[in-house]
Amino acid sequence: MPLDVLFVFTANPEDYTNRGSIVTPLKDRIESQILTHYPRSIEVSLAITEQEAQLLPVQQKKVATSDLLQRLVEQVSFEARAHEYVDKKSGVSARLTIAAYENLVSTAERRAILNHQTKTQVWVSDLSGVIPSITGKIELLYEGELEGSYQVAVHLLDKAIRTIFVQYFPNPEQTKKKKNSGKQSVEEKKSENPYQSVIRWFDAGNVLELSGDLADEKKIQQLYRVDGLHPLVKKFFPKANEMETALLMEFVLYGLSVYSLISKKINDNRVAFQDLMGSMMNLGNMGAGEEEDFFGDDESR
After folding, report:
1. How many CB atoms lie within 10 A of CB 294?
2. What is the pLDDT of residues 25-36, one digit of tens each?
């Protein structure tokens, strides 16, 4: 029986030889060995995830995912590949972002079902559903095991938010440096620090608390409570519609928190944003199940 069969083997050689090459007897039976590499750009990584993600038609109809959230998910894998706690030999494959994207959409879908919504969009807060995808797809070094897989996953989300945030809004680090220099007039500070109104609202003692299961309409109403948040987004994205604007408003809060301009804490499924000073004063009064800085960045602190 004449057979026309092609066998293709795919593997990370380090996994079973620990020396970076395929064992000689196996290599002798393979026609060609093709060396591959990780995606070198987010655009390529986005295309792979879009091709491979298993989303049901009902999910695609119910949940809208912005380019911002898709890029945040992809950036996690880029950060993981360079992170000091992640085992480089085991690597971080595209399976991480594929699983993370599927879980992200599922998290938004679950929220829509709970609130009896026919349609919703993925919010930044839905990234909490991505954490199991990260912990299940990365191998940690000894130092990472000591830190804990959950904390490493949270830190990777932090770094992804930090990296993507400056692609959409001015770098908060620059505003902090100018603030610390103390050489500017009040007018210059107002014009050059676009986050001043938002930070001042929290400095006045205001707290914004958002539930992860909050309906879209109620979340938008809560976001509009923060003075200066809507004008800030409209300044840089004047053509954004209502839902896009609200998403960017939420993104600003997460961005300011990872850059340590405001504080963010989580208690169960609720995220609270407040000023840094009030957060530090209440640190000793944290209740059971409450964690400081859900996506807080140790590096920026």
Report:
1. 21
2. 777 777 777 778
